[in-house]
């Protein structure tokens, strides 16, 4: 049996290059990423009550996350541009002081969507920060991580 070519970000001369996924089979692939923005309880209360000067924080952050997932190849060097079939970003206020963010990204293709899910969460979190920083500069973006991955040769990953 012939050995599969190495998947690497370096070409034969050692220069950075996009991985050639042309020989890989197309499979259903999905990734879920999570993270949160921790803030003062009063800031969260204003978000929930719709009292932020810049508008509906959760709606804008959701849209920003979706848009970011679709533009990941423009943001992260060497990522493949992908035709995503699903991008869902959910933001959930969690008392007393956080907004939990979860992004689910899926496609049928030759490469995974982990970077797209992580990018969606990160940009959604940055959007929450941007919309609230005038009243709470001490907010923290925390625990951005891959929590699930399925499809492809490496199979299923579930974070603990």
From TrEMBL:
<protein>
    <recommendedName>
        <fullName>Cyclic pyranopterin monophosphate synthase</fullName>
        <ecNumber>4.6.1.17</ecNumber>
    </recommendedName>
</protein>
<keyword id="KW-0501">Molybdenum cofactor biosynthesis</keyword>
<feature type="active site">
    <location>
        <position position="130"/>
    </location>
</feature>
<dbReference type="InterPro" id="IPR047594">
    <property type="entry name" value="MoaC_bact/euk"/>
</dbReference>
<dbReference type="Pfam" id="PF01967">
    <property type="entry name" value="MoaC"/>
</dbReference>
<dbReference type="InterPro" id="IPR023045">
    <property type="entry name" value="MoaC"/>
</dbReference>
<dbReference type="InterPro" id="IPR036522">
    <property type="entry name" value="MoaC_sf"/>
</dbReference>
<comment type="subunit">
    <text>Homohexamer; trimer of dimers.</text>
</comment>
<keyword id="KW-0456">Lyase</keyword>
<dbReference type="GO" id="GO:0061799">
    <property type="term" value="F:cyclic pyranopterin monophosphate synthase activity"/>
</dbReference>
<comment type="function">
    <text>Catalyzes the conversion of (8S)-3',8-cyclo-7,8-dihydroguanosine 5'-triphosphate to cyclic pyranopterin monophosphate (cPMP).</text>
</comment>
<feature type="binding site">
    <location>
        <begin position="78"/>
        <end position="80"/>
    </location>
    <ligand>
        <name>substrate</name>
    </ligand>
</feature>
<dbReference type="InterPro" id="IPR002820">
    <property type="entry name" value="Mopterin_CF_biosynth-C_dom"/>
</dbReference>
<feature type="binding site">
    <location>
        <begin position="115"/>
        <end position="116"/>
    </location>
    <ligand>
        <name>substrate</name>
    </ligand>
</feature>
<dbReference type="InterPro" id="IPR050105">
    <property type="entry name" value="MoCo_biosynth_MoaA/MoaC"/>
</dbReference>
<feature type="domain" description="Molybdopterin cofactor biosynthesis C (MoaC)">
    <location>
        <begin position="19"/>
        <end position="152"/>
    </location>
</feature>
<comment type="similarity">
    <text>Belongs to the MoaC family.</text>
</comment>
<comment type="pathway">
    <text>Cofactor biosynthesis; molybdopterin biosynthesis.</text>
</comment>
């Amino acid at each position: 049996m012939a050995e599969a070519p190495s998947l690497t970000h370096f070409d034969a001369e050692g220069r950075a290059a996009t991985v050639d996924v042309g020989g890989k089979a197309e499979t259903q692939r999905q990734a879920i990423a999570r993270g949160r923005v921790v803030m003062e309880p009063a800031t969260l209360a204003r978000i929930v009550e719709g009292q932020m000067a810049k508008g509906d924080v959760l709606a804008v952050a959701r849209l920003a996350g979706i848009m970011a997932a679709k533009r990941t190849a423009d943001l992260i060097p060497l990522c493949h541009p992908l035709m995503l079939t699903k991008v869902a970003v959910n933001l959930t206020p969690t008392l007393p002081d956080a907004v939990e963010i979860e992004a689910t990204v899926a496609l049928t293709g030759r490469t995974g969507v982990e970077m797209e899910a992580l990018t969606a969460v990160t940009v959604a979190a940055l959007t929450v920060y941007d919309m609230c920083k005038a009243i709470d500069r001490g907010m923290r973006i925390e625990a951005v991580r891959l929590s699930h991955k399925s499809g492809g040769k490496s199979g299923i990953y579930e974070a603990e």
